[in-house]
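Input chain follows. Return structure tokens only.
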Amino acid sequence: MDTISRENNSYLPVAGVIVGVLALVLSGVALAKISSAKKEMAEKVDPLVQKIDEAEGQARNAAAAADKASGSINKLATDTQAAFTQVAQEIGNIRGEITKVQEAKVAPKAAKADKAGATKEAAVAGANEYVIKAGDTFAKIARAQGVSIDAITAANPGVNSGKLNVGQKIKLPAKK
């Protein structure tokens, strides 16, 4: 047997009890420290978590506002395009009316006496026709009618664009 069990030593059970009590005290202190650390961490972390939640809510609101603004911008672009189309149509109508007024103004001047003293009757344009006025060129006519020079030339193959006569009728191509 060993020496501890042979000796009648009464300190051994007392030392075991002291070690046990010390272990209980240390575990109680550790538990108290952990509890206070947990409480302190909660005090510091909870406001941060709350701030993160608020920032997330603000980001959601901003995203919703951006989506709404994008929809408004798209609607505005569509409405603006429709307005431009309507204005373009009105300008076309006004241009047509101006052309008619100009032609009506030139028509009385076109009736002039010829070399023999007889009065020439002014030429009147029919549908898809145009009566040449002083200073007209295919380029001016094309611009005024909203067609290309090539389209006018193709519609009038026998007409010399360099020698247009006042009162001469030419055909107008269909507008695209």
